[in-house]
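User: Please write out a complete single-protein record containing the residue sequence and its fold in token form, without commentary.

AI:
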Amino acid sequence: MNVRLPNKSLAIAAFLAASTGLFAADPAASAPAKPVADVAAPAKVEKLLPTDVKKITEKFSAQRDAVLADRQALLDQLKTATAEQRKAIIEKMQAQQKDLLDAQRALGKQIRDDLRQLRQSQPTGVH
């Protein structure tokens, strides 16, 4: 018996779907957790933030921009500097990098200490 299939790839896809247990209309597997319209856009999320978090974020952004601008200024000076000036600029950049790493280490230590205190203050058996 010779059976002719109109679309061979469609038949193969149907066979694979049937043999692996996939169904075309499985609402539990294909339905998203939330409709796309309910997902908040970044602009909407900012409106929901408390003002103190916004202030902290703005302060961080200003500090970050200042550090980046200072670093860029040093890099620009480095392009046209003499040998002595290059050495001084590189030393200044290395000192700034060391200060940044020290501040990050101190912050990490503070966070670990705070977390340790929180864990110790919790009653036993509560996670």
Notes: Confidence is low (pLDDT under 50) at residues 15-42.
